[in-house]
Amino acid sequence: MKQVWQRSSKDMTAMPPLRHRGAAKKPMWIIVLLSLVCVALMGAYVYPPRRYSACYFFASSVCTPFKDWLPNVAREKTDEEIISSVVIRDLLSMPMPVSKNPKIAFMFLTPGSLPFEKLWEKFLQGHDGRYSIYIHASREKPVHSSSLFVGREIHSEKVVWGRISMVDAEKRLLANALEDVDNQFFVLLSDSCVPLHTFDYIYNYLMGTNVSFIDSFLDPGPHGTGRYSMEMLPVIEQRDFRKGAQWFAITRRHALLILADNLYYNKFKLYCKPAEGRNCIADEHYLPTLFNMVDPGGIANWSVTHVDWSEGKWHPRSYRAADVTYELLKNITSVNENFHITSDDKKVATLTPCMWNGAKRPCYLFARKFYPEALNNLLKLSSSHTAA
């Protein structure tokens, strides 16, 4: 038989009163730790470190940057950013003066003499008034073999490979070429460059479009995004960093934009240098990044100057006299797809059609690097391989 217990009033009064426990004090180290975590999270959001992602915390096949987890917060632009955006916006929208005699400015960036002046003279013959020549000789005064190049030197300064001085030389050439209002297209060439087609073909190719031929592609490897510096934040984010060939052919509008830019240029001047951890090469990243950010639709994303990097070395393949054959030049001029390969372990290769006004066309108008000894062979072949 179960015994039912009933508590009498005496029992109840005999029970001790309930004791109220005071609030437990949290250890100080927990508060400090939480504060540090909050500060770290805010810092990661505002200034995300390179390659920082949720992948560090979760072994997931699909990882999103930690910054994407947090709500977007509008960042107040600096005075320099506001000035830059206004200038670039108006340059891209304002009408350019129409020239009655549009010319191509051929701008040669060279340490000294130009070994292929005779070839260029043959190329330019009969086209007076449709071109201009500018020479930036960074080491010694050129000795000319063609009268077309005499007196075409501009004030030049020393140029160091990989340094911002290379970009400075490009800007110096552009400034001098822009003084002539008839110059409508601006082509950067080296002392080892040669033309691949007739003058008329190249003239019509460039003047017949309103885009600039600037190479710009995303390379997630060590020779691409790996050269990015967090010091470029917040003006340039890692996702905007691009790589491309130095050799460009650009419209007058874009030439003016390059000279007007100071904001992005200063970031590369300060934080893109060779042999400083990331080995950043300014002339390979400045213009590709600039135009990817301010006018991606205004560039073709390839260079019209052919360079063979297939050997996988620091410098491209160079052509000696014996290499210069009809087959070589025909192969280069028939290429109609732009090739890129990433520098990471995946070595992802992409082929993109070279589209000119909606039609697939040959990509290249010029080529490099040719040894001076190849001049005679190039002169012999210049009439037989070039397209009209």
Q: Under CATH, the topology of the domain at 80-91 and 100-304 is which?
A: Spore Coat Polysaccharide Biosynthesis Protein SpsA, Chain A
Task: Supply the number of helical segments.
Answer: 11
Termini separation comes to 117 Å
Main β sheet profile = 4 strands, mixed
- The overall pLDDT, averaged over residues, is 85
Task: Give unreliable regions as ranges.
Answer: 1-24, 44-69
Which CATH class of the domain at 80-91 and 100-304 is shown? Alpha Beta
What would the principal axes of the Cα set say about the shape?
globular
- Beta-strand residue fraction: 5-15%
Query: Could you give the order of strands across the largest sheet?
Result: 2-1-3-5
Q: Mind telling me the C-alpha Rg?
A: 31 Å
> How many beta strands in the DSSP annotation?
11
Structural class of the helix and strand makeup? alpha/beta
The percent range for helix content is 25-40%
Question: Which architecture name of the domain at 80-91 and 100-304 does CATH use?
Answer: Alpha-Beta Complex
String of helices and strands: HHHEHEHEEHEHHHEHEEEEEH
